[in-house]
Amino acid sequence: METQLSNGPTCNNTAHGSNTINSCSSPIDSGNTEDSKTNLIVNYLPQSMTQEELKSLFGSIGEIESCKLVRDKITGMLVFELVIPRYEKYLNTLKNLKGITLKLKLQYYLLVSYARPSSASIRDANLYVSGLPKTMTQKELEQLFSQYGRIITSRILVDQVTGMSRGVGFIRFDKRIEAEEAIKGLNGQKPPAATEPITVKFANNPSQKTNQAILSQLYHSPNRRYPAPLAQQAQRFRLDNLLNMAYGVKRFPPMTIDGMTSLAGINIPGHAGTGWCIFVYNLAPDADESILWQMFGPFGAVTNVKVIRDFNTNKCKGFGFVTMTNYDEAAMAIASLNGYRLGDRVLQVSFKTNKTHKA
DNA sequence: TCATATT
């Protein structure tokens, strides 16, 4: 009876992995009706991803009935996105989604789960737990709380430097009422073998940020597309690092050249402030975003792709752009894909420059 | 003493 899907190669409860975003719950059975299995929720999408891009990604699985991207009303932060492939069956969908995750090849994994039917009963079911024994694993935390209901996600926060548990964590239950029962049953109680009682309370709601925090984010925003992208980026980098540690993916510095240059306003060819912009020339008229994801994804973190189309015909004008997070991965993609034969066309791939490219 | 999973 679980909605949770595994979003990583292993169910990781080791010391360095205790900060995984996931619970270790059974990955497949949603416990919902067959109908609800066409309804997916996708978490940890890149903040830069657009609805069209997501649609393009998942469109290769099956026909998408609807695709909705939800942002925090106040901060503009991408919260999650919903995709509904109409014809796909349960296992087949899962199999293909794994493939999609690999193709996308982000620094972190997308979390793709069956969406629970939306209702008031699943809201505000998130608990904050403190005073946990430092030795307690995520699995043990779940075992402690699972007697009160179905756990959607769990997490133990760890020290960024040592990787050791900070003794605090989160438990998200399926239902609000389950969370309430867990508070009643566990707040102030000592877990088995623990010397100190734990505190269990409802977690702060992210939409209830202080005005000061929001103003601070707005102030630091260099970008007009959504408020607070700089703060978001910093946040994302931290998340990336957490997840990279958790999954053993290559780790990159908290402040990359990407962040440095955008802060300093330095202009480097191909570098647009949110990543390394790559120019792809000689695409076919019917080229779409998914081909760019598929070509560049294997080289590393791709945060954005765009095919430039003619306004009237909606056909590709022969070129597009790809944004990649890390310079070395972008350089490798360019070195590998420049001159690549796509169908009957030979592609030209380079860092984007300011000059106009002509055929 | 707080990260993100609800439309």
From TrEMBL:
InterPro entries (alphabetical): ELAD_HU_SF, HuB_RRM2, HuB_RRM3, Hud_Sxl_RNA, Nucleotide-bd_a/b_plait_sf, RBD_domain_sf, RRM_dom
GO CC term, one of those recorded: ribonucleoprotein complex
Residue stretches making up the RRM domain: 38-117, 125-205, 276-354
CDD domains (alphabetical): RRM2_HuB, RRM3_HuB
Domain of life: Eukaryota
UniProt-recorded Gene Ontology molecular function terms: RNA binding
Protein name per Swiss-Prot or TrEMBL: ELAV-like protein
Entry's family note: Belongs to the RRM elav family.
Keywords attached to this entry: Repeat, RNA-binding
Listed Gene3D superfamilies: 3.30.70.330
Keyword Repeat attributed: yes
